[in-house]
Structure formats: C-alpha cells, structure tokens
Amino acid sequence: MAAETPTNNFIAIPDLQSVNASIGEILSSPLSLFQSSCGASTSTVGQLQDKISSLDLSLTIPEHPELRALGYSIGTNSFSGKYNLVLPDLQAAAEMAVGGSISIAVGVLFAAMLYHFVLPSREESSTSPTKTRTLLIGSLICVISIMPYVVFDVVGIQNTAARFSVMAPFILYLFRTFEAAAGFVPKGADESFSRYCTYFATPAEVLFEQRVTRKEMIQSSMDVIKCAAIMSI
C-alpha cells in the first residue's frame, strides 16, 4: 500500500506595504478629490491675481517747493516721488473664504456631537463620568488640535493672515469643548440644537434672548457679518 505524501497548505500573505498603500489611497481619495478641485479654482484665481498685479497703478508726484498753509509748513519735496497702489490679494481672500467655510462646517459637526452625546449626560457625569463621554471629549480635543493643519494642506493656504483667520475658530472650538465638558454652557445656548450649533460654530460673541423681534434678529445677523468682515480685513 503506497504511503500518502503529506501536502503542505500555505496561506498567501499579501505584502503589507502594498496593503498599507491601498488603504492610504482609499482614505486619502476624498481629500485628494477636494484638494484637486480647490487647486483648480486656486489656479484660476492665481491667474486673475497675476493679471491684476500686472496693472500699473503707480502715481508720480513731481518735485514741489515748500508749502505753507494755515500757519503750517511742509518741506520741499516732502511728497514728491513715486507711489504704487496695491490691490487686494484675491488668492488669499479665496483661500480665507474656503478655509473659513470649512472651519465653520467642521464646528457645526463638533457641536452636533457635543449636543447629542456630551450635554445630555453632564448631570449624570458630574458624579461618575462615563468612559464613552470621556473618550469622546478626548477625541474631539485631539481632532480640533490637528484639524487646522489638515485644512491648510487640503486647501493649500500659504498666506499667513489667511492661516491665522482659519485657525482662530478652532481655538474657540477647543475652549467651548472644555466648556461643554465642565458644564459651563451659557444659559439659553443649549435650549435647541440649532441654537447651540450657532453658539458653538460662530466666531463672534452671540447673546441669546427668549423674546426677540425680526428687526433685532436681522440686526444681530448684520453684526455677526460685520464682525466676520472685520476679521477678514
């Protein structure tokens, strides 16, 4: 009787480097798509900015003698020379607009998680904090800390002022996350989901009242828009 030869069954293990590359490609594909779309719009704005920068808006004031008026005197050739008018940087404005919109949208997402998972359990967690609540708060703090750098990379923000404006709301989100975790949310800010999202994600001081007229609401909205415009300038 012939002896059976043993067969060796091997399990093929894929290359870990190729697996990691595939996983990284899958995870980064949405960001890459968004980054490519932002890059296309940024290049268009950049071309427009180059055309605007090529315009010669200089003004030359010729030499002038000493000027006297109302008891004051201006020295000779005090204003003479060449002056250039610098137009706004459209590319930096576009980067700030896109980055600011993303930061506010992310702030609304953070507010939703805090409103549904952290605020309802703050009374119970004051005596015995749950692991889920603690883990969520710690995760939000970590994500908020690194999210500005992700936005910088995705949008491609290079201007220092634009980076500062985009990063400022995330600093506010960090403090308001600590505020929600400790149970110090202002009275009236957590009465509804929309109100808390407005309070959390708005990079301006927001006051809440029980009874307001339509005119007061419009005026309050205009104050927020004015604050955002001043921050952009």
Structural notes for this entry:
It contains 7 helices and 4 strands. It has helices spanning 16-53, 90-118, 122-125, 131-155, 160-182, 193-201, 214-232; strands spanning 58-61, 67-69, 72-74, 81-84. By secondary structure, it is mainly alpha-helical. Strands 1-4 form a two-stranded antiparallel ribbon. Helix 2 (90-118) crosses helix 6 (193-201). Strand 2 and strand 3 form a beta hairpin. The chain is elongated and about 80 Å long.
Q: Supply the helix-strand structural class.
A: mainly alpha
> End-to-end distance, in Å?
93 Å
Strand content: 5-15%
Rg estimate, integer Å: 29 Å
Spatial arrangement of strands, main beta sheet: 1-4
Quaternary status: single chain
Unreliable runs: 8-14
Helix and strand pattern = HEEEEHHHHHH
Mean pLDDT: 75
The number of helical segments is 7
Helix content: 55-70%
Q: Biggest sheet, in brief? A: 2 strands, antiparallel
Shape: elongated
